[in-house]
# Entry
Amino acid sequence: MKEMERLSWRCRRGLLELDIVLGRFVERDYAGLDEMQKAAFNALLDMPDTVLWDMIAGRQDASEGEQQALLEKIRAV
Amino acid sequence: MAVVKRTFDVVVVGAGGAGMRAALALSEAGLKVAVLSKVFPTRSHTVAAQGGIAASLGNVSEDNWHWHMYDTVKGSDYLGDQDAIEFMCRAAPEVVYELEHFGMPFDRTDSGKIYQRPFGGHMQDYGKNPVQRACAAADRTGHALLHTLYQRNVQANTNFFVEWMALDLIRDQDGDVLGVVAMEIETSEVMILQARATLFATGGAGRIFQASTNAYINTGDGLGMAARAGIPLEDMEFFQFHPTGVHGAGVLITEGVRGEGGYLINKDGERFMSRYAPNAKDLASRDVVSRAMATEIKEGRGCGKDADHVLLKLDHLGEDVISHRLPGIREIAIKFAHVDPAKDPIPVVPTAHYMMGGIPTNYHGQVVAPYDGGPEEIVQGFYAVGECACVSVHGANRLGCNSLLDLIVFGREAARQIIEDLKSNPHPKQLPSDAADRSLSRLARLEGQKNGESVSEVGAAMRRVMQAHCGVFRFPDLLAEGVRKIYEVAERAKCTEIKDKSKVFNTARVEALELDNLIEVAQATMTAAAARQESRGGHARDDFPDRDDDNWLKHSLYFSEGRHLDYKPVRLKPLTVETFPLKTRVY
# Structure
């Protein structure tokens, strides 16, 4: 219920790079994720902007597998 | 319709570095403080500041605040108010040490002092040699600042209203400010936040331009609210641009690319910088490169179907140089420009970065306006700090690392002033009966709009007009046409329509309300730019290439009502030292 609306707002970030990449990902790919992946995405959104951007830019990896797999998807957007 | 009301001592709008620095001091003084933020506080745009905080600690090279002050006055192209600049540069070491005490993880020297690095425009001995003045926390100074201040605010019991958007300022018949009307984004619920002091720290409005490095949240909400409430906006013609942002995205391509041998070409494939700067070519200073790019675009040699950008070519450098010497550039180009720079050039355009103007304040953060006699009368109960304010320490052009300093110096000072002012003002003033009317009627208009305009189309039209007519280099014909066009877009913005009328996290509604703010800023910027017949700092005109101190050494004030301009003198007299005399700004 209103999940997409809530998520799109949470993709409003302090860094323009994240606004663009996360916004694109939610629009194109979020609906196709399974529950585990959705949970992993929500956990990523709780991370600080600079850390999240380093992960998406490939300078840092996630600590657990589900998140890492999701990161690969986001990086490919 | 009855609107719920809550009462605080102070309401702070915006939870970036400035808002949180002020809120911390206010909460620690025992005041009941509400801080409103559209996003979680540590996701404010302050996070994007990497460079550092300028302060003459002298930890690495000899330094003092007089030299810092000289650099700032010169950097401002003499439009900065010298009383405020002295105040900021003198306070800098103290506020940095305070942050250290709060636990901010600054980089250290071997002996354990705060390490300082060099940064453009910061010099020793009144402009003679570069000095190491920037205090940084790796390349994440803004991030570290936000986290440090957020933690301290939580400990100090600051009330955060996260995912709340302020809609309008409440002013009574005396012109006093009594709080704001705000909306919770999750529920669309509207509330009156009554306060004895209202502090705006809402950040910049770079999103008025098509090409902007600013995050989507930077919609000039504080400026829009102030303008609608009859407060003027100061020096809005002055924006700082970066020459190479990715066309259509705004993400920066570092100047290091040109340092490594990358160069700019127009639609004919010509390396055009050879014509503008035969020696330095693509390594000429930022403003020279930006103006050359704007000229190429204006004269029809831009690239793409709209001929609105140029190309940054680096494929000749080879994959090795690109991946090893320019880490991250390839990824940025692929992600945001959809080109692989090892094969194809990157479309780039001069990109808006920082807004020097804002809500006029004195150096105590009190909003001042010429509404009651003198040119700088205090608006009772209203304060502004950070990028949304015009103190004015940046004047016509901001020096790197002075923006974070601005946030913490004036965040702290505004809090001190508020604490003092509230002692003689112990009770909230009675709210006018129509306190929420402006916001409610804006919302009702949006709710009932039929056959209206799409928010994204009107927003795109605004950004196109600003970019083409009021960008980094300004031409008289384009400005004149731009004024007419932006006023037309403003008319369209009055009848925006949203299809989705739901209440929960309705981003469409928020974006429509944000556009109301952006369009106020866009009109102010265009109007003030068309009127200022000189080139100074961030305002460069083709027809008036020089600074004109005889006629234009003055701040502009734009009033939304009637879109009229007024001017006030620059405060050339510092607090304790002699005035820095006017000189040509050359580096």
